Amino acid sequence: VLKETLDNRGILGQIRARIRAEVFSALDDQSETRPTLSNENMLINELIREYLEFNNYKYTLSVLLTESGQPKDPIDRRFLAEELNITEDHATASTPLMYSMMTHFIQSP
């Protein structure tokens, strides 16, 4: 009954995700040199980071940052939008840039 209750509330999924992130972090060799990120990969990773943060996927984000070598501090959103030629307005400012990109491509002929 307890397992079913925790599973229904999504708690077990969160615990499993946290354990996976912690195991990955423990196994990750911090002395291993990460390859230098290209500008494209840094921008893509930043779009993914913003999406993961928005959706509160904190354990997935932890694994992404550890594995990719993406800087811990996020890139400025305005800079990211400018680099990707995304024009923002009041309505889009509260959602990840990836959502604006999706909307653009879905509406394009």
Explain what this protein looks like in three dimensions:
The protein is an all-alpha fold and 109 residues long. The protein has a domain at 40-107: Mitochondrial Import Receptor Subunit Tom20, Chain A (Up-down Bundle), CATH 1.20.960. Helix content is 63%, strand content 0%. The mean pLDDT is 87.
How do you describe this structure in short?
With 109 residues, this protein is mainly α. It is built from six helices and no strands. The protein has a domain at 40-107: Mitochondrial Import Receptor Subunit Tom20, Chain A (Up-down Bundle), CATH 1.20.960.40.
Map the helices and strands.
Blueprint: H1 2-8, H2 11-27, H3 39-54, H4 58-68, H5 77-83, H6 97-107
Structural class: mainly alpha
Most strands sheet: none
Bin the helical content. Answer: 55-70%
Tally of strands: 0
Which regions have little confidence, pLDDT < 50, spanning 5+ residues?
none
Please tally the helical runs, counting DSSP H or I stretches of 4 or more residues: 6
Mean pLDDT: 87
CATH class of one domain: Mainly Alpha
* Overall geometric form: flat
Task: State the assembly state of the protein chains.
Answer: single chain
CATH topology (fold) name of one domain:
Mitochondrial Import Receptor Subunit Tom20, Chain A
Q: Could you tell me the strand content as a percent range?
A: under 5%
Radius of gyration: 17 Å
Give the N-to-C terminal Cα separation. 52 Å
CATH architecture of one domain: Up-down Bundle
Along the chain, the helix and strand elements come as: HHHHHH
